[in-house]
Amino acid sequence: MGIVVKQSFKNTISTYLGFGIGAINTLFLYTNFITDEYYGLIAFVLSTANIMMPLMAFGVHNTLIKFYSTFKTKNSLNSFLTLMLILPMFVVVPVALIGYFGYDVISDLLSQRNGIVKDYVWHIIIAAISMGYFEVFFAWAKTQMQTVFGNFMKEVFHRIGIMLLLFCVYLGYLNVHEFINAIIIVYVLRMVIMKLYAFIIRWPVLKFNRIESFRAIIKYSSLIILAGSVATLILDIDKFMLGQYIDIEEVAYYSVAIYIASVISVPQRSMHQILMPITANYLNEKNKVALKDLYQRSSLSLFIISGLIFLLIVLNINQLYLIIPEEFSYGLTVVFLISLAKLYDTLLGNNNAILFNSDYYRVVLLFGVLLTVLIVILNMVFIPLLGIDGAAVATFIAIFIYNTAKIYFVNRKFKMLPFTKESLKVGVLILVSVAVFYFWEFPFHPIVNIAFKSLLIGCVYVFAVYKMNVSKDITGILKKYLPIK
């Protein structure tokens, strides 16, 4: 786990930096510099683009990692990489043409509930293309076991850009329409920089030789478009559907709550970047012993780290909502439900990497189709009844069912579970911490209260994890960086 821990640590730092900047943007700058209506519009545009992203990438960001290590000669590898660069264009070009000739129909459809969306269809398409090709170039770097710069671009770059643009709005240099245009430019620029970095690591040599596994590659890429869309769909289809059922201002309230809860997934996002290529190698080498070890250790490490973040969010959420505009407090229930769903996500470890890179990737497609139908139905039922809370309920149920199905399937086919007895110990620690600290408040200003309470919770949790010695990886890090005896 050496390279995993090393790059995951660096990725975690950059990801938290990005989330910290994003938190300032989401909780304070957007809520004070942009009206709720336009904040909701921006959330809708970027969420819709994110839903389209796997289609625009044609699944290449997963295909690159799965098949890269199977090519043993330079000519075959270069031909494969050439195909990976060209393949997304078979989707990008038709989508762009449909957008051009069907603009009026598409814009009328998306703006039925909120007319403000009508003029921003091209923003969605351009953002989706930029996001898609960014993931392709990031995957290119991952195959060379280089994830740190790409993770910085994925998590930090665009958030810094948006922060600067928000201040430009505040200072009067940009109006809100120019601001939205500039956001799309930031995503395009991010893609271009990632492309340059990926090509510096490994310069493309265009080869159009016949690829022996061509049919398998195309089949995998075609199927993985849907399968790879599932995780994105779960967290973004709700925002899209909210825009069809309720006033777009409430999408902004929901987006803030989702952002708060999504901080829990930061370690998972960071570790996932390096787990994907390593898992693919173990599968290609049929090294089941190493695969099981990676499965359980990644699950436990992520559960411990994300468990602490879960506690810091849930136990401080009431105080946090006292320092942002009052109307955003409607998202309190959303935070609780999505936080639980995110915590369950971490228990899966590298489960997704196993499924996406094994011969059973087709089952992810099946699960994805079923989940897509389920989550759409759940949102149609619960959003009209409960508003943004209904979207959270639908997302929680869908994630619980989806994750449970994936754990069951991996256990059935590979005879291994991500859980160990140490996982149970960590789960008990989290439950006890919630019971002890939820009603514990210091009589200070909310910001001071959050700081003191977080320090107390962190010290107690870290000390308990160290004393129980539930994870050799985590204990080793604590011994190295903290003065714990």
From TrEMBL:
What organism is the protein native to?
Gaetbulibacter jejuensis
Membrane spanning segments where?
12-32, 38-60, 80-100, 120-140, 156-173, 179-205, 217-235, 251-267, 300-324, 330-348, 360-385, 391-411, 423-440, 446-466
**Keyword vocabulary terms for this entry:** Cell membrane, Membrane, Transmembrane, Transmembrane helix
**Transmembrane in keyword set:** yes
What's the protein's topology in the membrane? Answer: Multi-pass membrane protein
Say if the entry is tagged with keyword NAD: no
Spell out the subcellular localization from the entry.
Cell membrane
Protein name stated in the entry: Flippase
